[in-house]
């Protein structure tokens, strides 16, 4: 059936009530994390806007989507450094990526290579938060004096086998609970087998933080360090200052 004037686009009902339920879920996640999101936004302003710290962002598997969302994104914070190893991305090998995040010791190597120092703060995205890579990242970063923010699901952690002597939520100083159900799939409601939710929730929560940082900084008459789209007029010119300022600490900008 083709779209006609008699049947507007918003009449599409494929996937049952999935869209409506997901919008409700995002509102629920926002309400549940209202307090901690304010704490995290204040920390971002203190470290990445007023201070000279970097926002380190890390994840593995499909949580790398959140890392890409935070890094070098139009409208996103400029002082962001991705913590990355090709082994952790399924595009370089799905089975290998799963094995890498379960291997102890990789987190220490990645964090050491990032040149992290006490000015910085670390975000770790991990839905289950039970594998060695995210757990050890948080543990190592806290040992170096960095504040650690976890985007994770307490429900998923409770249902998953522990592989690192603890969970990301237990190691992080601030925990943003994504409220993702065990297994990530969200549809159909009675017996979910498809439509994973974590990527959508992570992006929504991250952009809530960006909006909060903007509002806080604007009230003080400051300009937040935000990237402009390189595909819009003036974007390349506006971004040059950030390449110059952050490039020495973020070789991924090269």
UniProtKB/TrEMBL annotation:
<dbReference type="GO" id="GO:0016853">
    <property type="term" value="F:isomerase activity"/>
</dbReference>
<keyword id="KW-0413">Isomerase</keyword>
<dbReference type="InterPro" id="IPR046348">
    <property type="entry name" value="SIS_dom_sf"/>
</dbReference>
<protein>
    <submittedName>
        <fullName>Sugar isomerase domain-containing protein</fullName>
    </submittedName>
</protein>
<dbReference type="Pfam" id="PF13580">
    <property type="entry name" value="SIS_2"/>
</dbReference>
<feature type="domain" description="SIS">
    <location>
        <begin position="44"/>
        <end position="219"/>
    </location>
</feature>
<dbReference type="InterPro" id="IPR001347">
    <property type="entry name" value="SIS_dom"/>
</dbReference>
């Amino acid at each position: 059936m083709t779209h006609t004037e008699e049947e507007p686009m918003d009449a599409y009902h494929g996937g049952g009530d999935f869209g409506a339920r997901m919008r409700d879920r995002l509102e629920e996640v926002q309400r549940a994390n209202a307090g901690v999101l304010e704490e995290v936004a204040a920390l971002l302003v203190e470290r990445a806007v007023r201070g000279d710290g970097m926002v380190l962002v890390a994840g593995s598997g499909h949580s790398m989507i959140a890392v890409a969302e935070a890094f070098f994104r139009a409208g996103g914070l400029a002082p962001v450094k991705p913590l990355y190893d090709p082994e952790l991305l399924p595009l370089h090998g799905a089975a290998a990526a799963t094995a890498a995040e379960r291997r102890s010791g990789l987190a220490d190597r990645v964090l050491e290579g990032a040149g992290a120092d006490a000015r910085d703060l670390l975000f770790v995205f991990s839905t289950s938060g039970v594998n060695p890579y995210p757990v050890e990242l948080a543990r190592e970063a806290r040992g170096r004096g960095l504040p650690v923010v976890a985007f994770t699901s307490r429900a998923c952690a409770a249902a998953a086998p522990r592989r690192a002597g603890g969970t990301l939520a237990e190691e992080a100083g601030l925990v943003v609970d994504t409220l993702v159900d065990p297994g990530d799939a969200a549809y159909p409601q009675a017996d979910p087998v498809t439509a994973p939710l974590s990527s959508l929730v992570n992006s929504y929560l991250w952009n809530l933080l960006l909006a909060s940082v903007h509002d806080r900084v604007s009230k003080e008459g400051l300009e937040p360090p935000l990237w402009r789209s390189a595909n819009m007029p003036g974007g390349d010119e506006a971004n040059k200052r950030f390449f110059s300022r952050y490039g020495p600490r973020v070789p991924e900008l090269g």
